[in-house]
Amino acid sequence: MRGLIAALALVALSGCLSPTATGFRDQDVPMSSIVTLDLIQFSGRWYEVEAFVPDGKSCVIGAVTFTRQKNGDLTVTEGPCADGAPRSGLARSIGPGRFAFAGDELWVLWVDATYHTAVIGTPSGAAHVLSRELTLPPDRQIAVHEILAWNGFDVSKLRPSRRR
């Protein structure tokens, strides 16, 4: 009987936990990717300028290069950051603006009209703000924060990335 009461108490308590209590994204908010992503314009070198930083680490990916493949996939090469070794692989297209990469999904949530700023996120709650330059102009930073909030991310936890 005690086991049943304890199990019921855990079930009741789990309903009180906020999805953002342990992560950066409210999993109850639908997330959407960009449908009109131009992979030719998206290809090239990007610098991470902001990210949701796990465990107080200041740099998540640093820089990344995307290279469009003829079949709609992307080759991804991450620059050295946390462990000093670049990672690369194939991001397989799984839908408009969505790619399977390294055991997770990368969704392109937004790209500005000139393809100088992009926001990529994962349904599991990670997100990276990418720029062709090392900084973001204020108008694009506002747009980035609005896009992240729209997709359920807690922008108060967004941190600037530091270059090594």
CATH architecture descriptor name: Beta Barrel
H/E topology pattern: HHEEEEEEEEHE
- What name goes with the CATH superfamily? Calycin beta-barrel core domain
How much of the sequence lies in strands comes to: 25-35%
Mean pLDDT level: 80
Indicate the CATH class: Mainly Beta
Number of strands: 9
Helix/strand/pairing category: alpha+beta
Taking strands numbered 1, 2, ... along the chain, how are they ordered across the largest sheet? 1-2-3-4-5-6-7-8
- The best one-word shape is globular
Give an account of the 3D structure.
This protein is an alpha+beta fold. It has a single domain, classed as Calycin beta-barrel core domain (Lipocalin). Helix content is about 20%, strand content about 35%. It is built from three helices and nine strands. The longest helix has 13 residues. The relative contact order is 0.21.
List the helices and strands and how they pair.
Layout: H1 2-14, H2 39-42, E1 44-52, E2 63-68, E3 74-78, E4 87-95, E5 98-101, E6 104-111, E7 117-121, E8 127-131, H3 138-150, E9 158-160
Antiparallel strand pairs: 1-2, 1-8, 1-9, 2-3, 3-4, 4-5, 5-6, 6-7, 7-8
Produce a short descriptive summary.
The chain is an alpha+beta fold and 164 residues long.
